[in-house]
Each structure stands twice: as structure tokens, then as C-alpha cells.
Amino acid sequence: METDILQKNNLLAQRNRGWFEAKGILALNLVSSPGSGKTSLLERTIRELGGRLPVAVIEGDQQTMNDANRIQQAGAPVVQVNTGNGCHLDADMVHRAFRELNPAEDSVLMIENVGNLVCPSLFDLGEAKRVVIMSVTEGEDKPLKYPNMFRSADICVINKIDLLPYLDFDLPKAKEYALQVNHHLTFIDLSVKSGEGFENWINWLMEQAGK
Ligand SMILES: Nc1nc2c(ncn2[C@@H]2O[C@H](COP(=O)(O)OP(=O)(O)O)[C@@H](O)[C@H]2O)c(=O)[nH]1
Ligand SMILES: [Mg+2]
Predict the structure, then answer these.
(1) What is the rounded radius of gyration, in angstroms, for the C-alpha atoms of the chain?
(2) Which residue's C-alpha comes closest to atom 12 of ligand 1?
(3) Ligand 1: which residue has its CA nearest to atom 11?
(4) How many separate domains does the chain show?
């Protein structure tokens, strides 16, 4: 039964990928533990990109409209998906949210997945790139504990580096562990709060969008 669900999801994800490509939309799937800073990263990205690159957002959470409200305040169109008991977004939810959102051609579609490092790793949403966000308050061993998530990601953002002076977090070790499970992974260290390293994220986004 699990394989059936995943196979069906993969087909729908491929269909999403076709829709995104047809409209020239760069779709990114943001995955992380709760609280690592996904919504904060999106808020600052929307503000910093300004008119350079339109951003639309699909927000996934089990409950509440909180993140959608934050994104709306930041100035981007957003659709909130509540998954109830579900611990991840799937391709069909994204398809329906995408139709409602109807993002502009040549824009970026940010999909904030439900916060946890387990279920979202199994479900392709049709994204071009999967971004795993880790924050320095989480401990450096998370890639070893949740290898599927780090294996399925294309890039790893390490957030909250403003807190490094107050913690024992070993940044090189965290990267070494992540590379053990996925040797293709690349890293962007940044602080959404202070802005340190943020230009590397913006540059990566522009490059992915072909700008
Ligand atoms: N110190 C610090 N706190 C941050 C940073 N980025 C996010 N936060 C805080 O982390 C908490 C969780 O952020 P949020 O964006 O809601 O995380 P999400 O659950 O992954 O969407 C909030 O209190 C943010 O203000 C950062 O770079 N540095
Ligand atoms: Mg959030």
C-alpha cells in the first residue's frame, strides 16, 4: 500500500513538474525541523528580492494560517495548506494549491513543507530543487539521524549562524556528517536575523532562476 501511494505521488509530481516548466516557474521544496527558520527565510527573501524576481508561496502546516499571514505581510501571494494529521505535503495538495495561487510566469514558487525531518523526504512535489534547512541550535548530528532527508536534498542552508558564539555547534562537523550521507550536497551558511551570508542565498536563487 505504501508503494502504491508513493507511485501515485510520483506520477502527480511529474505532472506538477511539467506545469512548472511550462510556465517557467522555479519550484523549491523547503524542508526542515520545526523552528529552523523556513518562514523567516522566506520573509527576508521576499523583502530582499523586491521586484527583481516575483515569489509566490505555498505554506504547509498541520494547523493554523500563521505562516500564510506572515508571508502575506511580507508582500507575496500565498496559499496555506493544512494537512491535519498528515506530516508532509504531497504532489496533489501542491497541484491544487498551485491552481489556486496561479503564480506569474517566470516566478519562484516556494513550497514550505510541514516541519519535520522524516515524512517529507519520501514525497516528491515536482520541485526543481529540494532545500533542507538546518539551524545551529539543532545539533550537528541531524544528518546522521535523518539521512533520507539530507540524501534527498540538493542544497543545505545552515541558518542562525549569529548564534554560533553562544553554542557548541561544530559547523565543519555538521557538514562532514551531511556529506557522509550525500556527497553532492552544497551548503549556504547564513543568518536570516543578521543578514550575514544572505547574499549567497539570493545569488543561488537568481542563478537557479536563470537571472
Ligand atoms: N537567532 C536567530 N533566530 C532566528 C533566525 N532565523 C529564524 N529565527 C527564529 O527562529 C524561530 C522559528 O522561525 P520560523 O521562521 O518560524 O521557523 P520555521 O518553523 O522553520 O518556519 C523564530 O523565533 C525566528 O525569529 C536567525 O537567523 N537567527
Ligand atoms: Mg514556518
Answers:
(1) 16
(2) 35
(3) 35
(4) 1
CA of 63 to the centre of ligand 2 (A): 11
For ligand 1, is residue 60 a contact (CB within 6 Å)? no
* AA letter at 202: I
Per-residue pLDDT of the chain (211 residues; tens, 9 = 90+): 778 999 999 999 999 999 999 999 999 999 999 999 999 999 999 999 988 999 999 999 999 999 999 999 999 999 999 999 999 999 999 999 999 999 999 999 999 999 999 999 999 999 999 999 999 999 999 999 999 999 999 999 999 999 999 999 999 999 999 999 999 999 999 999 999 999 999 999 999 999 8
In angstroms, the CA 147 to CA 131 distance is 14
Kindly tell me the burial class for residue 139, based on how many C-beta atoms sit within 10 Å of its own C-beta (0-12, 13-18, 19 or more). middle
Query: What is the 144 CA–ligand 2 centroid distance (Å)?
Result: 23
The CATH number of residue 201's host domain is 3.40.50.300
Domain range spanning residue 145? 2-208
CB distance 38 to ligand 1 below 6 Å: yes
Residue 193 CA to residue 129 CA, distance in Å, equals: 24
Among 32, 36, 40, which is best to mutate for testing ligand 1, by the most ligand atoms less than 8 A from CB?
Answer: 40
